[in-house]
Amino acid sequence: MRIGGDEVVVTLFVAVLSYSRRIFVKAFLSERQDDWFEGTTCAFQHFGGVPRTLLNDNAKSLVQKVNHEAAPWFSPRGISVSAGTGASRRKTCRPFRARTKGKTEPGVKYAKRNALAGRQFASIAALEAQLAEWMQRANLRVHGTTHEVPADRFECDEMHALRALPANPMPVRERQSAARSPTTCSCVDTVRYSVPHA
Questions:
Q1: What is the per-residue pLDDT across 100-121, written as a single tens digit (0 to 9) for each?
Q2: Phi and psi torsions of 14, nearest 5°
Q3: Phi, psi at 89, each rounded to 5°
Q4: What is the pTM of this model?
Q5: Residue 183 pLDDT exceeds 90
Q6: Within a 10 A sphere around the Cβ of 196, how many other Cβ atoms?
Q7: 53, 18 Cβ separation under 8 angstroms
Q8: DSSP string of 113-162?
């Protein structure tokens, strides 16, 4: 995408509630573990609650090991973040079986084609504002599968089934830093920044 006149790679985090098909979309500039956790936290806050079961993608930043026979082996931090949100079950989609995450895949395409295609933004903040406005419209349309409005289905049936948000603040992005290297660079979140020699 073009943001501020530059070509920028944007990754979309998409969460869809399985019954109502209410959608949440957030843009990130990477696909790191902290981006997944921040997206999940923001989605729960947007929905006003936590579902009992989370169905995750098999991203390397979330799942350390995938076994077709046994349960997936989540990263230790992923387990602690999941526990902190109040979700009781966490599952992953089967590898190379896109239909096991069928509710979110169309949501990703819908957001790319309907909210962002052909648009340019002056800043990341402008992109986020566009996505927030678009989500409101998307949740008020008649959904192609349910033939109902996601916002209506959510308010009538699904909203009351969500668990309450945790009493403690939900996990936030963890900033990791390291000491300056001999090359006068400082490493923050695995990104190296130059610093004055002095």
A1: 666 667 778 888 888 888 889 9
A2: -125, 130
A3: -130, 145
A4: 0.73
A5: no
A6: 5
A7: no
A8: IIIITT-EESSHHHHHHHHHHHHHHHTTSPPTTTSS-HHHHIIIIIGGGS
Residue 66: both structure tokens together? 């995938």
The rounded distance, in Å, linking the Cα atoms of 141 and 149 is 6
Least confident among 2-11, 90-99, 122-131, 142-151: 90-99
Each residue of 53-73: pLDDT tens digit? Answer: 877 776 666 665 555 544 554
Helix (H, G, I), strand (E, B) or coil at 2: strand
30 confidence band (pLDDT: 50, 70, 90): confident
d(CA 85, CA 28): 21
- Given its phi and psi angles, is residue 147 left (phi above 0), alpha (psi -120 to 50 degrees) or beta? left
> Which of 14, 27, 20 is closest to 141 using CA atoms?
20
Domains of the chain: 2-194 (3.30.420.10)
Please list, in sequence order, all residues whose beta carbon lies within 8 angstroms of the beta carbon of residue 103, skipping any fewer than 6 positions away. 16, 18, 21
CB 36 within 8 A of CB 51: no
pLDDT digits (tens, 9 = 90+) for 150-159: 999 999 989 9
Task: For residue 29, give the nearest of 6, 3, 11, 2 by alpha carbon.
Answer: 11
